TrEMBL record:
InterPro entries assigned: GrpII_AminoAcid_Decarb, PyrdxlP-dep_de-COase, PyrdxlP-dep_Trfase, PyrdxlP-dep_Trfase_major, PyrdxlP-dep_Trfase_small
UniProt keyword terms in alphabetical order: Aminotransferase, Lyase, Pyridoxal phosphate, Transferase
Protein name per UniProt: Aspartate aminotransferase family protein
Single GO MF descriptor: pyridoxal phosphate binding
Protein backbone atom coordinates (compact mmCIF):
# COMPACT_ATOMS: atom_id res chain seq x y z
CA UNK A 1 0.00 0.00 0.00
CA UNK A 2 1.37 3.44 -0.85
CA UNK A 3 1.07 5.99 1.87
CA UNK A 4 1.21 9.78 1.99
CA UNK A 5 1.38 9.87 5.77
CA UNK A 6 3.21 12.95 7.05
CA UNK A 7 6.23 12.17 9.19
CA UNK A 8 6.36 13.50 12.74
CA UNK A 9 7.99 16.97 12.58
CA UNK A 10 11.52 17.63 13.83
CA UNK A 11 10.28 20.83 15.47
CA UNK A 12 12.01 24.14 15.95
CA UNK A 13 10.19 26.15 13.29
CA UNK A 14 9.39 29.73 14.26
CA UNK A 15 6.12 31.58 13.79
CA UNK A 16 6.98 33.37 10.54
CA UNK A 17 7.95 30.14 8.86
CA UNK A 18 4.93 28.31 10.23
CA UNK A 19 2.59 31.05 9.12
CA UNK A 20 4.04 31.00 5.63
CA UNK A 21 3.74 27.23 5.48
CA UNK A 22 0.11 27.32 6.62
CA UNK A 23 -0.76 30.00 4.12
CA UNK A 24 0.88 28.03 1.34
CA UNK A 25 -1.06 24.92 2.39
CA UNK A 26 -4.32 26.88 2.21
CA UNK A 27 -3.55 28.73 -1.01
CA UNK A 28 -6.07 26.66 -2.99
CA UNK A 29 -8.91 27.31 -0.55
CA UNK A 30 -12.21 28.73 -1.66
CA UNK A 31 -12.15 32.53 -1.47
CA UNK A 32 -14.84 32.88 1.24
CA UNK A 33 -13.97 36.51 1.93
CA UNK A 34 -15.12 37.24 -1.64
CA UNK A 35 -18.40 35.43 -1.11
CA UNK A 36 -17.43 32.31 -3.06
CA UNK A 37 -18.63 29.90 -0.37
CA UNK A 38 -22.39 29.41 -0.02
CA UNK A 39 -22.05 27.95 3.49
CA UNK A 40 -19.44 27.37 6.26
CA UNK A 41 -18.59 31.02 7.09
CA UNK A 42 -20.92 33.78 8.33
CA UNK A 43 -20.41 37.50 8.56
CA UNK A 44 -22.36 40.43 9.91
CA UNK A 45 -19.81 43.23 9.65
CA UNK A 46 -16.10 43.79 10.19
CA UNK A 47 -16.53 45.28 13.68
CA UNK A 48 -18.62 42.38 14.99
CA UNK A 49 -16.09 39.95 13.49
CA UNK A 50 -13.24 41.74 15.27
CA UNK A 51 -15.05 41.88 18.62
CA UNK A 52 -15.74 38.15 18.44
CA UNK A 53 -12.12 37.45 17.58
CA UNK A 54 -10.70 39.61 20.39
CA UNK A 55 -13.08 38.24 23.04
CA UNK A 56 -12.22 34.70 21.93
CA UNK A 57 -8.51 35.26 22.46
CA UNK A 58 -9.05 36.93 25.88
CA UNK A 59 -10.15 33.47 27.06
CA UNK A 60 -8.12 31.36 24.67
CA UNK A 61 -6.64 29.16 27.41
CA UNK A 62 -9.51 28.81 29.88
CA UNK A 63 -11.77 25.78 29.85
CA UNK A 64 -15.54 26.10 30.10
CA UNK A 65 -15.65 22.67 31.77
CA UNK A 66 -14.44 24.58 34.83
CA UNK A 67 -17.12 27.26 34.54
CA UNK A 68 -18.60 26.58 37.99
CA UNK A 69 -15.41 25.75 39.95
CA UNK A 70 -12.57 27.76 38.45
CA UNK A 71 -13.55 30.17 35.70
CA UNK A 72 -16.48 31.92 37.32
CA UNK A 73 -16.51 34.69 34.74
CA UNK A 74 -16.98 32.21 31.91
CA UNK A 75 -19.67 30.43 33.94
CA UNK A 76 -21.52 33.74 34.34
CA UNK A 77 -21.14 34.63 30.65
CA UNK A 78 -22.52 31.22 29.69
CA UNK A 79 -25.57 31.70 31.94
CA UNK A 80 -26.10 35.17 30.45
CA UNK A 81 -26.03 33.84 26.89
CA UNK A 82 -28.54 31.12 27.82
CA UNK A 83 -30.77 33.74 29.50
CA UNK A 84 -30.67 35.92 26.37
CA UNK A 85 -31.87 32.95 24.32
CA UNK A 86 -34.59 32.04 26.81
CA UNK A 87 -35.97 35.56 26.63
CA UNK A 88 -35.89 35.46 22.84
CA UNK A 89 -37.82 32.16 22.75
CA UNK A 90 -40.77 32.96 25.06
CA UNK A 91 -39.45 30.40 27.52
CA UNK A 92 -41.36 29.61 30.72
CA UNK A 93 -39.74 30.40 34.09
CA UNK A 94 -38.22 26.99 34.73
CA UNK A 95 -36.86 26.59 31.19
CA UNK A 96 -33.11 26.26 30.88
CA UNK A 97 -30.39 25.69 28.30
CA UNK A 98 -26.84 24.69 27.53
CA UNK A 99 -24.04 26.15 25.39
CA UNK A 100 -22.67 23.50 23.01
CA UNK A 101 -20.07 23.09 20.28
CA UNK A 102 -22.53 23.17 17.39
CA UNK A 103 -25.92 22.34 15.99
CA UNK A 104 -25.19 18.62 15.76
CA UNK A 105 -24.33 18.46 19.46
CA UNK A 106 -27.42 20.49 20.41
CA UNK A 107 -29.57 18.11 18.38
CA UNK A 108 -27.87 15.04 19.84
CA UNK A 109 -28.62 16.22 23.37
CA UNK A 110 -32.27 16.96 22.60
CA UNK A 111 -32.71 13.54 20.98
CA UNK A 112 -31.20 11.86 24.03
CA UNK A 113 -33.46 13.81 26.39
CA UNK A 114 -36.54 12.93 24.30
CA UNK A 115 -35.61 9.25 24.14
CA UNK A 116 -35.05 9.04 27.88
CA UNK A 117 -38.29 10.91 28.61
CA UNK A 118 -40.13 8.37 26.45
CA UNK A 119 -38.45 5.48 28.25
CA UNK A 120 -39.32 6.96 31.64
CA UNK A 121 -42.95 7.45 30.60
CA UNK A 122 -43.61 4.22 28.69
CA UNK A 123 -41.01 1.98 30.26
CA UNK A 124 -40.09 0.91 26.72
CA UNK A 125 -36.74 -0.59 25.87
CA UNK A 126 -37.66 -1.88 22.41
CA UNK A 127 -37.23 -0.23 19.05
CA UNK A 128 -37.99 3.49 19.03
CA UNK A 129 -38.29 6.06 16.26
CA UNK A 130 -38.14 9.75 15.34
CA UNK A 131 -40.75 11.22 12.98
CA UNK A 132 -39.47 14.27 11.14
CA UNK A 133 -39.82 16.22 7.89
CA UNK A 134 -38.01 14.91 4.80
CA UNK A 135 -35.94 18.10 5.05
CA UNK A 136 -34.79 17.72 8.68
CA UNK A 137 -31.00 17.94 9.08
CA UNK A 138 -28.83 14.83 8.86
CA UNK A 139 -27.67 15.53 12.43
CA UNK A 140 -30.88 13.77 13.55
CA UNK A 141 -29.85 10.69 11.54
CA UNK A 142 -26.45 10.81 13.21
CA UNK A 143 -27.97 11.00 16.70
CA UNK A 144 -30.46 8.27 15.80
CA UNK A 145 -27.65 6.07 14.53
CA UNK A 146 -25.73 6.44 17.80
CA UNK A 147 -28.83 5.77 19.91
CA UNK A 148 -30.33 2.95 17.83
CA UNK A 149 -33.42 4.91 16.82
CA UNK A 150 -35.23 4.54 13.52
CA UNK A 151 -35.70 7.67 11.38
CA UNK A 152 -39.05 8.16 9.62
CA UNK A 153 -39.09 11.05 7.14
CA UNK A 154 -42.47 12.59 6.33
CA UNK A 155 -43.33 14.04 2.93
CA UNK A 156 -43.65 17.76 2.22
CA UNK A 157 -46.50 19.97 1.10
CA UNK A 158 -46.18 21.89 -2.18
CA UNK A 159 -44.65 24.84 -0.28
CA UNK A 160 -41.87 22.51 0.96
CA UNK A 161 -43.09 22.59 4.56
CA UNK A 162 -43.76 19.24 6.16
CA UNK A 163 -47.19 17.70 5.74
CA UNK A 164 -48.27 17.20 9.35
CA UNK A 165 -50.88 14.60 8.41
CA UNK A 166 -48.10 12.60 6.78
CA UNK A 167 -46.15 12.91 10.03
CA UNK A 168 -49.10 11.60 12.02
CA UNK A 169 -49.36 8.55 9.78
CA UNK A 170 -45.77 7.64 10.61
CA UNK A 171 -46.23 7.91 14.37
CA UNK A 172 -46.75 4.86 16.55
CA UNK A 173 -46.44 4.02 20.23
CA UNK A 174 -42.63 3.89 19.89
CA UNK A 175 -42.22 7.44 18.55
CA UNK A 176 -39.98 9.37 20.93
CA UNK A 177 -39.69 12.64 19.02
CA UNK A 178 -41.39 14.89 16.47
CA UNK A 179 -39.23 17.48 14.70
CA UNK A 180 -39.87 20.77 12.91
CA UNK A 181 -37.20 23.08 11.45
CA UNK A 182 -37.01 26.87 11.60
CA UNK A 183 -36.04 27.04 8.83
CA UNK A 184 -35.06 23.72 7.21
CA UNK A 185 -31.66 23.63 5.57
CA UNK A 186 -32.65 22.48 2.05
CA UNK A 187 -35.38 25.04 1.30
CA UNK A 188 -35.08 27.71 3.97
CA UNK A 189 -38.75 27.56 4.97
CA UNK A 190 -40.17 27.19 8.47
CA UNK A 191 -42.24 24.05 9.07
CA UNK A 192 -45.77 24.44 10.49
CA UNK A 193 -44.54 24.50 14.09
CA UNK A 194 -47.91 25.27 15.65
CA UNK A 195 -49.53 22.28 13.91
CA UNK A 196 -46.70 19.91 14.87
CA UNK A 197 -46.92 21.21 18.43
CA UNK A 198 -50.66 20.42 18.53
CA UNK A 199 -49.93 16.91 17.29
CA UNK A 200 -47.22 16.53 19.92
CA UNK A 201 -49.58 17.65 22.69
CA UNK A 202 -52.41 15.42 21.46
CA UNK A 203 -50.17 12.33 21.25
CA UNK A 204 -47.99 13.25 24.24
CA UNK A 205 -44.71 13.10 22.27
CA UNK A 206 -41.67 15.35 22.71
CA UNK A 207 -41.31 17.99 19.98
CA UNK A 208 -37.99 19.54 19.06
CA UNK A 209 -37.61 22.69 16.95
CA UNK A 210 -34.38 22.77 15.00
CA UNK A 211 -33.72 26.51 14.80
CA UNK A 212 -29.99 26.05 14.21
CA UNK A 213 -30.22 28.40 11.21
CA UNK A 214 -33.00 30.79 12.22
CA UNK A 215 -32.90 30.78 16.01
CA UNK A 216 -30.83 33.86 16.69
CA UNK A 217 -31.96 35.91 13.66
CA UNK A 218 -35.53 35.03 12.57
CA UNK A 219 -37.13 36.78 15.61
CA UNK A 220 -35.42 39.97 14.46
CA UNK A 221 -36.86 39.60 10.95
CA UNK A 222 -40.25 39.75 12.62
CA UNK A 223 -39.26 42.79 14.70
CA UNK A 224 -38.29 44.77 11.59
CA UNK A 225 -41.69 44.16 10.04
CA UNK A 226 -40.85 41.17 7.87
CA UNK A 227 -42.65 38.49 9.82
CA UNK A 228 -41.35 34.95 9.93
CA UNK A 229 -43.50 32.21 11.42
CA UNK A 230 -43.02 31.89 15.20
CA UNK A 231 -41.38 28.65 16.32
CA UNK A 232 -40.69 28.83 20.03
CA UNK A 233 -41.90 27.77 23.50
CA UNK A 234 -45.13 29.75 23.08
CA UNK A 235 -46.39 26.49 21.54
CA UNK A 236 -46.98 24.02 24.37
CA UNK A 237 -45.73 20.95 22.47
CA UNK A 238 -42.25 22.44 22.00
CA UNK A 239 -40.01 20.77 24.60
CA UNK A 240 -36.60 21.74 23.17
CA UNK A 241 -35.03 24.13 20.66
CA UNK A 242 -31.57 24.10 19.05
CA UNK A 243 -30.18 27.46 17.86
CA UNK A 244 -26.67 28.06 16.54
CA UNK A 245 -24.75 31.17 17.54
CA UNK A 246 -22.04 30.37 15.01
CA UNK A 247 -24.43 30.79 12.10
CA UNK A 248 -26.78 33.79 12.16
CA UNK A 249 -25.80 34.84 15.70
CA UNK A 250 -22.52 35.86 13.95
CA UNK A 251 -20.39 34.41 16.79
CA UNK A 252 -17.09 32.56 16.32
CA UNK A 253 -17.20 28.77 16.05
CA UNK A 254 -17.90 26.52 17.86
CA UNK A 255 -21.06 27.96 19.40
CA UNK A 256 -24.60 26.64 19.60
CA UNK A 257 -27.32 26.50 22.22
CA UNK A 258 -29.98 23.99 23.16
CA UNK A 259 -32.95 25.02 25.29
CA UNK A 260 -35.34 22.82 27.28
CA UNK A 261 -38.82 23.64 28.56
CA UNK A 262 -37.84 22.50 32.06
CA UNK A 263 -34.82 21.62 34.14
CA UNK A 264 -36.14 18.06 34.38
CA UNK A 265 -36.04 17.83 30.57
CA UNK A 266 -32.47 19.13 30.50
CA UNK A 267 -31.37 16.64 33.14
CA UNK A 268 -32.36 13.79 30.84
CA UNK A 269 -29.49 14.81 28.58
CA UNK A 270 -27.06 15.45 31.44
CA UNK A 271 -24.52 12.71 31.92
CA UNK A 272 -23.48 11.79 35.46
CA UNK A 273 -20.83 9.22 36.35
CA UNK A 274 -19.65 8.56 39.89
CA UNK A 275 -18.16 5.12 39.31
CA UNK A 276 -14.57 6.01 38.61
CA UNK A 277 -11.72 7.05 40.96
CA UNK A 278 -11.89 10.79 40.35
CA UNK A 279 -15.34 11.50 41.74
CA UNK A 280 -18.57 12.74 40.21
CA UNK A 281 -18.29 13.66 36.55
CA UNK A 282 -21.34 15.62 35.42
CA UNK A 283 -21.71 17.31 32.02
CA UNK A 284 -24.77 18.69 30.28
CA UNK A 285 -22.89 18.52 26.95
CA UNK A 286 -21.33 15.71 24.91
CA UNK A 287 -17.90 17.28 25.24
CA UNK A 288 -16.01 17.51 28.50
CA UNK A 289 -13.47 20.23 27.82
CA UNK A 290 -15.07 23.14 25.98
CA UNK A 291 -13.49 26.31 24.55
CA UNK A 292 -14.10 29.18 26.96
CA UNK A 293 -13.15 31.54 24.14
CA UNK A 294 -16.30 30.61 22.22
CA UNK A 295 -18.49 31.49 25.20
CA UNK A 296 -16.70 34.79 25.84
CA UNK A 297 -16.94 35.66 22.16
CA UNK A 298 -20.66 34.87 22.04
CA UNK A 299 -21.26 36.98 25.14
CA UNK A 300 -19.30 39.88 23.62
CA UNK A 301 -20.98 39.67 20.19
CA UNK A 302 -24.47 39.47 21.73
CA UNK A 303 -23.73 42.49 23.93
CA UNK A 304 -22.15 44.38 21.04
CA UNK A 305 -25.03 43.80 18.64
CA UNK A 306 -27.97 43.59 21.04
CA UNK A 307 -31.48 44.17 19.79
CA UNK A 308 -30.61 47.09 17.55
CA UNK A 309 -27.62 45.32 15.98
CA UNK A 310 -29.55 42.13 15.20
CA UNK A 311 -32.39 44.22 13.78
CA UNK A 312 -29.89 45.96 11.51
CA UNK A 313 -28.42 42.60 10.52
CA UNK A 314 -31.93 41.26 9.78
CA UNK A 315 -32.64 44.31 7.66
CA UNK A 316 -29.39 43.94 5.70
CA UNK A 317 -29.86 40.20 5.22
CA UNK A 318 -33.48 40.57 4.14
CA UNK A 319 -32.66 43.30 1.59
CA UNK A 320 -29.80 41.23 0.19
CA UNK A 321 -31.86 38.03 -0.06
CA UNK A 322 -34.69 39.96 -1.78
CA UNK A 323 -32.25 41.45 -4.28
CA UNK A 324 -30.78 38.01 -5.11
CA UNK A 325 -34.27 36.56 -5.48
CA UNK A 326 -35.31 39.37 -7.85
CA UNK A 327 -32.16 38.95 -9.93
CA UNK A 328 -32.51 35.17 -10.15
CA UNK A 329 -36.19 35.51 -11.02
CA UNK A 330 -34.97 37.69 -13.90
CA UNK A 331 -33.29 34.63 -15.48
CA UNK A 332 -36.23 32.98 -17.29
CA UNK A 333 -34.85 29.42 -17.19
CA UNK A 334 -34.60 29.41 -13.36
CA UNK A 335 -37.20 29.13 -10.65
CA UNK A 336 -37.38 28.90 -6.87
CA UNK A 337 -38.56 25.67 -5.30
CA UNK A 338 -39.83 27.57 -2.27
CA UNK A 339 -40.23 31.20 -1.19
CA UNK A 340 -37.19 31.93 1.00
CA UNK A 341 -38.21 32.91 4.51
CA UNK A 342 -34.95 33.89 6.20
CA UNK A 343 -31.50 33.54 4.65
CA UNK A 344 -31.45 30.34 2.59
CA UNK A 345 -32.30 30.26 -1.10
CA UNK A 346 -32.68 27.24 -3.35
CA UNK A 347 -33.55 27.34 -7.03
CA UNK A 348 -33.51 25.02 -10.02
CA UNK A 349 -34.94 24.68 -13.47
CA UNK A 350 -37.58 22.68 -15.33
CA UNK A 351 -35.80 23.39 -18.63
CA UNK A 352 -32.20 22.50 -17.97
CA UNK A 353 -30.06 20.47 -15.63
CA UNK A 354 -29.13 22.79 -12.76
CA UNK A 355 -26.15 20.54 -11.92
CA UNK A 356 -24.69 21.51 -15.33
CA UNK A 357 -25.18 25.15 -14.36
CA UNK A 358 -23.49 24.36 -11.04
CA UNK A 359 -20.46 23.02 -12.89
CA UNK A 360 -20.29 26.28 -14.80
CA UNK A 361 -20.38 28.20 -11.53
CA UNK A 362 -17.65 25.97 -10.10
CA UNK A 363 -15.48 26.62 -13.16
CA UNK A 364 -15.97 30.34 -12.51
CA UNK A 365 -14.68 30.00 -8.91
CA UNK A 366 -17.93 29.61 -6.93
CA UNK A 367 -18.33 26.67 -4.57
CA UNK A 368 -21.69 25.20 -5.55
CA UNK A 369 -23.96 23.74 -2.87
CA UNK A 370 -26.61 21.44 -4.29
CA UNK A 371 -29.84 19.78 -3.31
CA UNK A 372 -31.02 16.69 -5.12
CA UNK A 373 -34.75 16.33 -4.20
CA UNK A 374 -35.55 18.39 -6.32
CA UNK A 375 -32.29 19.30 -8.02
CA UNK A 376 -31.34 22.79 -6.91
CA UNK A 377 -28.55 25.32 -6.32
CA UNK A 378 -28.49 26.22 -2.66
CA UNK A 379 -27.05 29.21 -0.82
CA UNK A 380 -27.08 29.95 2.90
CA UNK A 381 -26.55 33.67 2.44
CA UNK A 382 -24.43 35.85 4.66
CA UNK A 383 -23.36 39.44 4.22
CA UNK A 384 -20.20 38.34 2.41
CA UNK A 385 -22.53 37.77 -0.50
CA UNK A 386 -23.80 41.34 -0.79
CA UNK A 387 -20.78 42.97 -2.53
CA UNK A 388 -20.50 40.13 -5.05
CA UNK A 389 -24.15 39.94 -6.12
CA UNK A 390 -23.57 41.41 -9.59
CA UNK A 391 -20.64 39.08 -10.24
CA UNK A 392 -22.63 36.06 -9.04
CA UNK A 393 -25.62 36.90 -11.20
CA UNK A 394 -23.46 37.60 -14.27
CA UNK A 395 -21.71 34.23 -13.83
CA UNK A 396 -25.04 32.52 -13.27
CA UNK A 397 -26.43 34.00 -16.50
CA UNK A 398 -23.29 32.94 -18.36
CA UNK A 399 -23.46 29.40 -16.93
CA UNK A 400 -27.13 29.07 -17.89
CA UNK A 401 -26.30 30.33 -21.42
CA UNK A 402 -23.51 27.72 -21.75
CA UNK A 403 -25.89 24.94 -20.81
CA UNK A 404 -28.54 26.20 -23.24
CA UNK A 405 -25.98 26.30 -26.05
CA UNK A 406 -25.17 22.70 -25.27
CA UNK A 407 -21.51 23.51 -24.69
CA UNK A 408 -21.39 21.54 -21.43
CA UNK A 409 -21.39 17.78 -21.02
CA UNK A 410 -23.24 15.45 -18.67
CA UNK A 411 -22.57 16.81 -15.18
CA UNK A 412 -20.25 14.84 -12.94
CA UNK A 413 -20.92 17.02 -9.93
CA UNK A 414 -22.87 15.48 -7.03
CA UNK A 415 -24.76 16.96 -4.11
CA UNK A 416 -22.49 16.77 -1.07
CA UNK A 417 -22.80 18.76 2.09
CA UNK A 418 -19.53 18.42 3.98
C1 LIG B 1 -31.04 23.27 10.08
C2 LIG B 1 -29.70 22.80 10.58
N1 LIG B 1 -29.63 22.02 11.68
C3 LIG B 1 -28.47 21.57 12.16
C4 LIG B 1 -27.28 21.88 11.56
C5 LIG B 1 -25.98 21.30 12.10
O1 LIG B 1 -25.18 22.30 12.64
P1 LIG B 1 -23.60 22.10 12.87
O2 LIG B 1 -22.97 22.03 11.52
O3 LIG B 1 -23.24 23.33 13.65
O4 LIG B 1 -23.40 20.86 13.65
C6 LIG B 1 -27.29 22.70 10.42
C7 LIG B 1 -26.06 23.06 9.74
O5 LIG B 1 -26.05 23.76 8.75
C8 LIG B 1 -28.53 23.16 9.92
O6 LIG B 1 -28.61 23.90 8.80
Amino acid sequence: MTTTRASFPEGGRGWNELQQAMRATSSGDIDWKRGRSPLFVFLNDAETYEIGRKAYFEYFSENALGGSRAFFGIGKMERDVIDYGLSLFSAPDDATGVFTNGGSESIFLAVKAARDAHRARVGSTGSMNIVMPDTAHAAFDKAANAMDLEIRRASLRADKRVDVEAMEQLVDGNTVLLVGSAPCYPHGVIDPIEEISSLAVRLNIWMHVDACVGGWIAPFFTRIGRPTAPFDFRYPGVRSISADLHKFGFCPKPASTVFYRSLEDQQRATFVCDQWPSGVFRTATLSGTRPAGAIAAAWAVLNHLGTSGYERAAHNLASMVDAYVDDINGIPELEFWAKPEVSIINFGSKELDIFEVAEGMAARGWLPALTRRPKGLHLMMSLFHEPVRDEFIADLRASVADVKRGSTGTPKIEATYS
